[in-house]
Design a protein that fits this description.
single chain, alpha+beta, four-stranded antiparallel sheet, 423 residues
Length: 423
Amino acid sequence: MRVERVPYRLITVATAAVFLAACGKKETAPPSQTPEVGVITAEPTSVPVYTELPGRTSAYLVAQVRARVDGIVLRREFTEGADVKAGQRLYKIDPAPYVAQLNSAKAALAKAQANLATQNALVARYKVLVAANAISKQDYDNAVAAQGQAAADVASGKAAVDTAQINLGYTDVSSPISGRVGISQVTPGAYVQASQATLMSTVQQLDKVYVDLTQSSLDGLKLRQAIQSGKLTTSGPGAAKVTLILEDGKPYPEPGKLQFSDVTVDQSTGSVTIRAQFPNPNGTLLPGMFVRARIEEGMNDHAFLIPQIGVTHDQKGQAIAMIVNAKGKVEPRPLVTTGMRGQDWIVDSGLQAGDRVIVQGIDKARPGTPVHASPAQLPPAPGAASGAAAASGTAPAVAASGSTSAPASGAAAASSAAASSAQ
C-alpha cells in the first residue's frame, strides 16, 4: 500500500489559512449589548394620609334598669332583645304595701288639715278677744304657735303623700331611654331591694354608636409635628374622615366622624383614647365589637407612588429602588415608605421629581452598569397582569430574576455559532 506524502509547503499554507480564519472570526464577533429596562418617571402626587387604629364599639346611651323600691316582681312585660320606648313599663313590682303607705299618708294629711282648720278658727277668735283684753296676750301667742305647728303638720303630710305616691310609681319599672333591652336579670317571683339597687336589665341606644380607638402617644406626637411643619394639611378640627373595618375584614358602609381625643396619656399603656361616632341604622354594630378604624388625617402633597415590583428590600428590611441616573447607569436608592395604596408603595422620601425608577428588567440592572431605559409597559389592572405579561413576554424576567437571561444568552450563542459555521 502506497501512502502519498503531502508536501510541506501545502501544510504550511493550510495552517496559515486556519489562523487567518480564526482571527477573522474574532474581529467580526458582535459586541456585548446594553441591557434594556423599563422605567417610570417619579412625579410627586397628593396622597391621603391614613392612620389605622384598633378599637371597640360602645352604645350611644346605656341605662341600667335597677329596682328603686323593695318588693316581689309580679311580672315581666317585655321580650328580651326587643326595642322599647322611653317610659315603657318593663316590670311590675307588688304595689300592695305602697298603696297602704299612700292611704296612711293621705289619712295623716287629712288629720293635719283638720287640726289646722281648728287652729285657724281659734287664732281668729283670740285675736278679737285679746284686742278687748278679754284674754291674756300669752293665750293668744300660744294659739298662734299652735296654728303654725298645725300648718307644718299639713306640709309634712303632703310630703308624705308625695313620697308614698312616688314609691307606688316605682313599682312600675319603666325604661328610662328608648333602645334595645337586654337579658332580664330577674324573673317573676324574685325579691328586689332598693338598698342594694338590684340590677334588673339594661337598655342600650344603638341607632348610633361610639367607637373608642387607642392611639400611641408617639403617633399622636408625629401627627401634630407633621401638621405644624406643613407636611400634612387638614381642613380644621373634627373634619377628618373616619371609615370602619369590621371583624370580618369588610368595610362598614356608613362614614363616621371624630368626636374628641383624650387629653391625658394612659401611663400604663402610653396611649390616648380617640372617640368616633358612627350611624347604625340597621343595627349592624353591637356594643363590644372589635373593629379597626381608618382616620384620614390629611394630605401628603409630596409623596411618590411606585409600583410594588419596583421596590425591593435588603436583609435589614430597608426599601430600595433602582434608578437610572443622568449618566445612564443603575443607581440604588434607599427609600422611606409609609404604606401601600392599592398596588403601589407610598414613598415619603428617597426620590426626587424626574427620577427614572426601574420597574421592568430589574434582574438585568446591576448597580453601576449602563442600561438602556425605555418607558415601562405596565398592566392597567391587577386582574389583567397575567394576560398582559403573557402577551408582552416581559413578565417572566421581572417575576423571576435571571430565569430567562441564561436561556436567552444560550440561544444567542447557538445562533452565532451557526452563523460562523455557515461562513
